[in-house]
């Protein structure tokens, strides 16, 4: 259950939601980015950069010499990392994907579904009837009254494309997830899993590159849940 009026009207959530319908579902279909969609991308980056978690992520990356100190330049780097169009499959003719689309929206490929590691998109698509949910398992919490924060799901997309496992954070903000995955990627940890301490929990984030500058996928490693 989500208090949509309270949660989704927050600036970072509102600008995040505006991005979710900007993509072609199927891999192999050329993505066309309109001027309005470019503005929505920039609005989202502007919104998350106003938050403490993104400011801390920026500070950390600058300290490690992994990102420019100038905030405008860092925003450009975020845009390039998350919104540059790429070819999902080597040899494809069309630029049919982006880091953001794969991680936060999801993509269809033949008879299966790939990506979609975000609870907001999952919630919205299940509510719309596009996701047939087949169950989950979750990581136990430290405290009995604590909300679950890590979950792995099984589902079918529109009754056709299945995904046997998709792990994600649960209840976290868009800025938190962008910060976590960006730090892992720019820290040069892509290509192998990275242990991350989040409060009382140690989690393992898998962050794989697609080309030199973009994230191919990023998610919580389900084996450590």
From TrEMBL:
It comes from the Eukaryota. InterPro entries: ENDOU (IPR039787), EndoU-like (IPR037227), EndoU_C (IPR018998). It is an enzyme of class 4 (lyase). CDD domains: XendoU (cd21159). One of its GO terms (molecular function) is RNA binding. Keywords: Endonuclease, Hydrolase, Lyase, Manganese, Metal-binding, Nuclease, RNA-binding. Its EC number is 4.6.1.-. Signal peptide: none annotated. Its cofactor is Mn(2+). It catalyses: ribonucleotidyl-uridine-RNA = a 5'-end dephospho-uridine-RNA + a 3'-end 2',3'-cyclophospho-ribonucleotide-RNA. Residues 1-224 form the EndoU domain. Belongs to the ENDOU family. Monomer. This is Uridylate-specific endoribonuclease.
């Amino acid at each position: 259950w989500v208090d949509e009026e309270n949660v989704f009207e927050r600036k970072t959530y509102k600008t995040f939601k505006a991005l979710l319908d900007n993509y072609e579902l199927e891999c192999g279909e050329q993505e066309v980015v309109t001027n309005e969609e470019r503005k929505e991308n920039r609005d989202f980056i502007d919104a998350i950069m106003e938050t403490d978690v993104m400011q801390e992520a920026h500070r950390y990356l600058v300290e490690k010499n992994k990102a420019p100190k100038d905030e405008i330049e860092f925003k450009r780097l975020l845009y390039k990392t998350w919104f540059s169009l790429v070819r999902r499959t080597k040899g494809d003719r069309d630029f049919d994907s982006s880091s953001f689309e794969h991680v936060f929206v999801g993509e269809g490929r033949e008879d299966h579904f790939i990506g979609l590691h975000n609870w907001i998109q999952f919630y919205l698509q299940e509510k719309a009837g596009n996701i047939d949910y087949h169950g989950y398992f979750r990581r136990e919490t430290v405290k009995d009254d604590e909300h679950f924060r890590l979950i792995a799901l099984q589902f079918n997309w529109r009754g056709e494309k299945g995904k046997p496992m998709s792990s994600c954070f649960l209840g976290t903000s868009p800025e938190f997830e962008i910060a976590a995955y960006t730090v892992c990627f720019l820290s040069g940890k892509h290509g192998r899993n990275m242990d991350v301490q989040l409060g009382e929990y140690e989690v393992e984030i898998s962050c794989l590159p697609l080309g030199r500058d973009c994230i191919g996928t990023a998610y919580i490693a389900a084996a450590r849940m």
